[in-house]
Amino acid sequence: MKSFIKFFVLGACILLGFVSCLGDEDNVQKYSAWGIGQEVTGMSYDFKVLLDGGATFIPTNTASNDFDISTGDRLRIFFDVDAGIDIDALDVVSGSLQYIVKYTRKEVLEISDTVPDSLGNDPLGIYASNSIWQTESLLTIPFTIDVGNYSTTLHSIDLVYFPDSMATLSNGIYLELRHNAEGDGDDQVVSQYACFDMETIEPFQNVTDSVPYTIVINNNGFASSESRIEGWYKAP
């Protein structure tokens, strides 16, 4: 099933990782979608985007070649299409690319006796379990954190696992989503996304079926002191 987000913005910025306010023009529809970049040769465009919903996006504007996109890049793209086109019915979507947000494919970090825990455990908020989704081997997790007013502090968000807790994969895997605020303030809440490559967990590199997981979050200050989200990782 193809999945796109269409925006009708009336003078207010949208959160959840949006880069800017998007408006309507008479002959243009504005969209945002998630996908994986793929380099292309011999064409007028340098890359295409394999969208999470199953379609392929091809940029029609040559300015898109100014973006430095490599195969495997995790992307959120903002693009325009002509009014009246039902892109949900298309397998190949052509549009004028306006902006790209590139997300780091973060490793899932190991915590063990030989790899000590030196990460922060500051509060963060997360949505319901169905707000986390898998694309290939990536888990994309939307979250909220507190930051100081006019802050330029770089926060760290990490997903960690404990090999000692993994007797067998059939029993699932225990994960913790960690936040290090680096001493920043808590004057306002911001929303963002993080993308984690589950195949950086060595036992997951040979998964051929589905594995249950539990993600534990310290959300003190948002709700209760701890919450757990359960899901299934499916072999890509």
Write up what this structure looks like.
Strand 2 (28-39) and strand 3 (47-51) form a beta hairpin. This protein is mostly beta strands. The protein has no helices and 16 strands. The two termini are 17 Å apart.
Number of strands: 16
Secondary structure category: mainly beta
Estimate percent helicity. Answer: under 10%
**Low-confidence regions:** 1-23
User: What overall geometry do the principal axes of the alpha carbons give?
Assistant: globular
Strand content: 35-45%
Based on CA atoms alone, the radius of gyration comes out at 19 Å
Q: CA-to-CA gap between the ends?
A: 17 Å
Order of helices and strands: EEEEEEEEEEEEEEEE
Mean pLDDT: 80
Largest sheet: 5 strands, mixed, barrel
Major sheet strand order: 2-3-4-6-5
Number of helices: 0
Task: Give structural attributes.
disordered N terminus; about 240 residues; single chain; five-stranded mixed beta sheet; mainly beta; five-stranded mixed barrel
Question: Helices and strands in order, then pairings?
Answer:
Elements (H helix, E strand, L loop, with lengths): L4 E2 L21 E12 L7 E5 L4 E4 L14 E9 L9 E12 L1 E3 L1 E2 L14 E2 L6 E3 L2 E10 L8 E6 L11 E8 L7 E10 L12 E8 L9 E8 L2
Parallel strand pairs: 4-6, 7-14, 8-12, 13-15
Antiparallel strand pairs: 1-2, 2-3, 2-5, 3-4, 5-6, 9-11, 10-11, 11-14, 12-13, 15-16
